[in-house]
Amino acid sequence: MGIFESNAPKGPLAEKWTNHKNSIDLVNPANKRNIDVIVVGTGLAGGSAAATLAELGYNVKTFCYQDSPRRAHSIAAQGGINAAKNYQGDGDSVYRLFYDTVKGGDYRSRESNVYRLAQVSGNIIDQCVAQGVPFAREYGGLLDNRSFGGVLVSRTFYAKGQTGQQLLLGAYSAMNRQINRGKIKSYNRHEMLDIVKVDGKARGIIARNLVTGELERHSAHAVVVASGGYGNVFFLSTNAMGSNVTAGWKIHKKGAYFANPCFTQIHPTCIPVSGDHQSKLTLMSESLRNDGRIWVPKKKEDAEAIKAGKKKPTELSEEERDYYLERRYPAFGNLVPRDVASRAAKERCDAGFGVNKTGEAVYLDFSAAIVRYGKEAATTRKISNPSDAEIKKLGKEVVEAKYGNLFQMYEKIVDQNPYETPMMIYPAVHYTMGGVWVDYNLQTTIPGCYAIGEANFSDHGANRLGASALMQGLADGYFVLPYTIGNYLSDDIRTGTIPTDSAEFDAAETEVRERLEKFINTKGTKSVDHFHKILGKIMWNKVGMARNAKGLKEAITEIKELREEFWKDVRVPGNTMEMNAELEKAGRVADFLELGELFAKDALHREESCGGHFREEYQTEEGEAMRDDENFMYVAAWEYTGNPADAILHKEDLDYENIQVKTRSYK
């Protein structure tokens, strides 16, 4: 076990980033054109980084497995992006955004990185407005804001329920400008399968052309991994089906530490599982909790009647409903942080109050909001003594303007009209706060290899606040990495082009080729999805919302056995030198089978509850998370040594000098 540092600059917190930018080395514009950078992943983090680096003059190569950067999973983000602009005049500030983020993460994030994130958040909005991102606006024309969980101010900028898509179009447009200039070479339908190190430094990647099956060598002076999170280790999640951990896991196996893998977020507002046939889950934006009230029946017999189809939720009076978040957390109500809301929903359903056929769902009800907005609209339009029908009609129009596309999506999937009957929701795996360890400069423990966005661990601690994922991705890509990578690349201005015919590239390509051929040659009897589904059930049942030592030990053993069976009995049809979707999946699931074991190992070692990591042995009498700050206030960064079971723990101590560490309370 080792203890190591974040390389955060010294000095007052509010001045760290400014002083750091003033002191780091830069690359002359004339020298940038001689330096190559590879960016793996073209979502918000990768796309914004690629566009900005190319604009600065670097030669950039981008890689994504999708057929276009526009299909990155960032487009699925619905609710919004945080920034400390204080447009509402409700007391927001850079410090308050910083404090809310650290508190929301249950005091398990790095202070210096989070403060920098809050500092640059306002710049992101200015950048995106300049790009033409159509943020919602108030009556007077100013940008509108709404609230998200875990805060007492409105700081979330949004574009209906399509915020991620609109922000990605902005980054994609900036990328296209650089592609047209020849500064970005875009390799779509390519997947990074290994990193290449020369003299200990990241100097390129091995990528597979997913159309032809060919392996390609690409060299660079630095490699940036922006490949998103690893939530699909659970099989069912809100992530796109192709989202994977492969790029992050490959650099982990070559020397990049993997930090806090057990810090994974369960989102409280997702469409419930309907059966074993599903391949993914659908997120309903957290923004819905601004106006939707969450409840279950007060009586178990009412819950049973609803499950049996003998009763409708609209038949229950207000007195027969338990608005349990409002009851338990009066200060924040339905806008408690995601981990708190998720555990509360699980507790109610486990107690027998769940409402769909599986018993794993609660209601998200807009009836009160429709009436409230309807009365307000009637007053605005000078309609005296409006009827109930008029009020509901006007209220529905307001709700449709705010959330219409989300309501349409729900109705298409569930075949129920959410304007007339409450939505059913249940927690699901959504975001991963853990990831590749990076220092203050976003550099991994491999020199010249950087990780940004959800691929790294740095900003969210044990729980991410809503609307902070887009903020971190664009902060890293637009405003942090372009500065910090120059400090490293300033030593490479005389290096010249990195050759790809070296022994290091030969060895890396051979290793990748042998692994692919092993998949094809196994000739087993079970599909890749067969193993992935089993892994997902192990993870959800024993490493999911609630964990305990017994279940975690069982999970470690079961995952190890499943991995051994996978390599003996997986069946991958076709061959390597062709388009082969099953071969792609096989590689990704093989990596998930290793990550899953480390995930459980990390959860077992952390003998406390914090944020999204909830150990049943460590909870208060009221069922809230019980941290152990004396023994676990650190980042757990794991070093790969050949097998997940033998991973070596390194600790980065977390020191809070500017905020008081205390037990989270949203009551």
Automatic annotation (TrEMBL):
The GO terms this record gives for MF are: electron transfer activity; flavin adenine dinucleotide binding; succinate dehydrogenase (quinone) activity
Name any cofactors this protein relies on.
FAD
Spell out the InterPro entries in the cross-references: FAD-dep_OxRdtase_2_FAD-bd, FAD/NAD-bd_sf, Fum_R/Succ_DH_flav-like_C_sf, Fum_Rdtase/Succ_DH_flav-like_C, SdhA/FrdA/AprA, Succ_DH/Fum_Rdt_flav_su, Succ_DH/fumarate_Rdtase_cat_sf
EC top class, as a word: oxidoreductase
The reactions it catalyses are: a quinone + succinate = fumarate + a quinol
Q: Which residues form the active site?
A: 338 (proton acceptor)
Location in or out of the cell: Cell membrane
Q: Name one GO cellular component term.
A: plasma membrane
Instruction: Look up and give the membrane topology term.
Output: Peripheral membrane protein
The alphabetical list of record keywords is: Cell membrane, Electron transport, FAD, Flavoprotein, Membrane, Oxidoreductase, Transport
Q: Which SUPFAM superfamilies match?
A: FAD/NAD(P)-binding domain (SSF51905), Succinate dehydrogenase/fumarate reductase flavoprotein C-terminal domain (SSF46977), Succinate dehydrogenase/fumarate reductase flavoprotein, catalytic domain (SSF56425)
Where's the Fumarate reductase/succinate dehydrogenase flavoprotein-like C-terminal domain?
Answer: 532-666
- Xref: Pfam families: FAD_binding_2, Succ_DH_flav_C
Q: Alphabetically, which GO biological process terms does the record hold?
A: anaerobic respiration
The record places domain FAD-dependent oxidoreductase 2 FAD-binding at 36-470
Q: What EC number(s) has UniProt assigned to this enzyme?
A: 1.3.5.1
Protein family (similarity comment): Belongs to the FAD-dependent oxidoreductase 2 family. FRD/SDH subfamily.
Q: What is this protein called?
A: succinate dehydrogenase
The scientific name of the source species is Christiangramia forsetii (strain DSM 17595 / CGMCC 1.15422 / KT0803)
